[in-house]
Amino acid sequence: MHNPRDPLARFGAVRRDPVVYQIYPRSFQDSDGDGVGDLRGVRDRLGHLAELGVDAIWLSPIYPSPMADFGYDVSDYRNVDPVFGSLAELDELIREAHGLGLGVLLDIVPCHTSIEHPWFREHPDWYIWRDRPNNWSTAFGGSAWTRLGDRYYLHSFYPEQPDLDWRNPEVVAAMQDVFRFWLDRGVDGFRIDAIDRLLKDPELRDDPPAAEPFGLPLRADEARLALTNSRNAPDMGEALGAIRAAAGDALLIGEVYLPAARWGPYLQHFDAAFAFELLQAPWEAGALRRAIEESTRLPGAAWVMSNHDFGRLGTRFGEANARAAAMLLLTLPGPAFLYQGDEIGQLDGPPGESGLDRAGRDRYRHPVQWDASPSGGFTTGTPWLPPVDPERRNVEAQRGDPASMLAFVRELIRLRHGLGDGLELLDAEPGLLAYRRGEHVIVINVTEEPRPLPAEAGDVVLATHEADGLPPHAGVVTA
Ligand code: GLC
Questions:
Q1: Most buried of the four, 42, 64, 296, 365, by CB within 10 Å?
Q2: Residue 27's domain spans which residues?
Q3: Model confidence band, residue 353 (pLDDT cutoffs 50, 70, 90)
Q4: If pLDDT is split at 50, 70 and 90, which confidence band does 319 have?
């Protein structure tokens, strides 16, 4: 069994509580004027990330793809889509990132391929078929089965993303080769997509009616079912073990859409799982505290409060709470994932404007705003999605401003690496979230009213706001 104690042993900069910066390559930086971000653009901006002090980058998928799900529909696991660059460009990016002490994580999508992956034609038996649909639905709603000829194939996501059959040893071997291929190129770890969907009931039986709540938000139609057959099969450990066997000691972080209490098999093989209880918690002291408590019963939580599927800190928790939310994210123990643009407090775009992603997630994916120009410095061409408000917030303006969100996040990251071991949740008055990390006490005022600092707090070493005590929406790190 893998030893999860030193997950970052392979990183250039070994740090205890790493900050992993999520790059959504399409929207990070365009270098060739086609309006879509690319790997060259990432290389050009590595200096920003080194300055910010993050420990690693995670690249959302960069593989060849018809882009039905913007890269989460992979048609070749061992190459780079021309829109993003080339393999040589990725090699160079890995080399330069390592030179700056930044680890590199790729996004592996093992549950499904693109329907245009040659495997779908050449090896139909690597996929999951049924004569008639059962009652399983996709993550986006609607039946998870699409008819092709006289049979139906399974897709847990879009119909363009047929599910692989991980009970077929040839599939396991082919995907193990994919992990080895990238490790040989110097990658340090992987974010593993939708991993709770990897293995299903071998007989593909209907999901029975739900007997108890799932523990995380679901669509109303999903919540009526127990979801015990369509995902998270009891023998999941075997498939996860095969991934670990191929990945050696690389960092493996699983996107496991399950409450932390059910992470057991995943953490036997992976280093960490995204704590969806915190990501889904409303900005209320009690709910945040419960989510942290649940997710820290055992070590292995990877913290994430914003990403390309759920939206940004400043929109999800409200602009007034963006700094406090960043403080929470970046003072919890274990890997923390910071979504590109959140370091300058970017907001989501308007809902329903572009309709490129059928699940309505475009608004979370607008480009990073590097400067105040209309294109935000993202591209010299026409951006695939327009920047939201580059004149109001951008990296260039914030870089020279010690009162900016960027300066605040940089300071948080610097402080993070000096926080003590473990985490002790403190009993604070209603509306305050307070916890101890060694010598430090962190207090966040989740209410709309000012609050006094609790007795446990020491001297303020970093604050979201310049004021005494705890104004509304404020947070402090004290020592
Ligand atoms: C993950 C990704 C999401 C994608 C889905 C299917 O949840 O984060 O963007 O649509 O998997 O691959």
A1: 42
A2: 9-112+168-421
A3: confident
A4: very high
Greatest distance between any 2 Cα atoms in the chain = 70
Cα–ligand 1 centroid distance for 139 (angstroms):
9
Give me ligand 1 centre to Cα 111, in Å. Answer: 10
Find the helix packing angle between 405-416 and 322-330, rounded to 10°.
20
Is 335 part of any domain?
yes
CA 16 / ligand 1 centre spacing (Å): 28
CA dist., res. 89 & res. 181, Å (int)? 16
Tokens of 35: 């309006």
Q: Cα(256) to centroid of ligand 1, in Å?
A: 11
Mean pLDDT of 239-263: 97
CA distance 137 to 115: 18
Nearest atom in ligand 1 to 307's CA: 8
The CATH number of the domain where 83 resides is what?
3.20.20.80
In the annotation, is 255 catalytic? yes
Q: Which of 180, 299, 312 is nearest to 247 (CA)?
A: 180
Q: Is residue 235 part of a domain?
A: yes
Cα separation of 329 and 332, whole Å?
Answer: 6
The confidence score (pLDDT) of residue 11 equals: 47
pLDDT at 16: 72
Q: Is 51 a catalytic residue?
A: no
Q: Give the mean model confidence (pLDDT) for residues 137-156.
A: 98
Ligand 1 touching residue 109 (CB < 6 A): yes
> Ligand 1 atom closest to Cα of 361?
9
pTM above 0.90, yes or no: yes
pLDDT at 12 over 90: no
Establish whether residue 195 lines the binding site of ligand 1, counting it when its CB lies within 6 angstroms of any ligand atom: no
- If one counts the domains in the chain, the total is 1
Q: Cβ(72) to ligand 1 under 6 A?
A: yes
Instruction: Assess if residue 255 is contained within a domain.
Output: yes
Catalytic residue (choose from 69, 73, 255, 348): 255
Are 262 and 294 in contact, with CB atoms under 8 Å apart? no
